# Entry
Amino acid sequence: MLIKILGSAAGGGFPQWNCNCRNCRSLRDGTYKGKPRTQTQVAISHDTRAWFLLNASPDLRTQIEATAVLHPRNHGRNSPIGGVLLTSGDIDQIAGLLSLRELQPFRIYCTPSIRRILQEDNSMFAMLNRVPGQVSWTDISCDRSFCLQGERGVGIDCRVFSLGSRFPAYVSRDRSLALKQGDALLGLIASSSSDRRMAYMPAVPDVDDSLLEQLEETDLLLFDGTFWSDDELTRVQGSGSTAREMGHIPVSGTEGSLRKLAGLQRPRKVFVHINNTNPMLDETGPEYAQVRAAGWEVAEDGWSLDL
Ligand SMILES: [Zn+2]
# Structure
């Protein structure tokens, strides 16, 4: 299984258009010892012919153009992108679908709740179904595995599990209550033909023993690296929500992901979805050194991984 990291930042990207934090400011003035990043986006393939997007970031159009294997290959209009798997309904994970509305057939895999939010509550997404045979929708659930279907019936075996019950802020309270809570936020484990497994989870509210057990059976972990500390955003903005209130376990601290996942022996561990305020983006800083010393990597746009 081939894995392309097209984007590795959290919502807003790095730098973020309205942010003048130390990271964003010094990146703009050319003194930052770290790399700019687009919003988190991953593409996977089992054969390099058919590719599947894990979510659809607001930067998707430029991310596809920056990735040759995702370009059309035949005369006229076509795409090697066979489908999109949605792990949540967050704007950062679905907005890119609107950049895929040019009548190209593909499949969207998501929970029934996310499908209802998109199809029934947000009429713009009807542009994905303007003509027969455009986008097909496949419901997925936590109790049965499924296959991202490529050419000739071959595909990537997947299973998902619930990581949270909070739907995005744009979903009304009444609507949220009418939906299946476990559908709100998923973690994904995708298996290669040689049964090597990748876990993809750009948003993780917390880590418990059952999640740890699942992750110990994987070979590659792409994990929530949004915030370094719980109060990171409130310190930059002067107000707002903590990391945990936003559904992200922080990297540092006694209850952070570095500590909680320290015992994981098997998988290669990579942080994705890194917010522009996160000090571990500075490759000369102590936070980056701490992460690397703990055996983790900090994902960068353009990385290719193989399982
Ligand atoms: Zn910033």
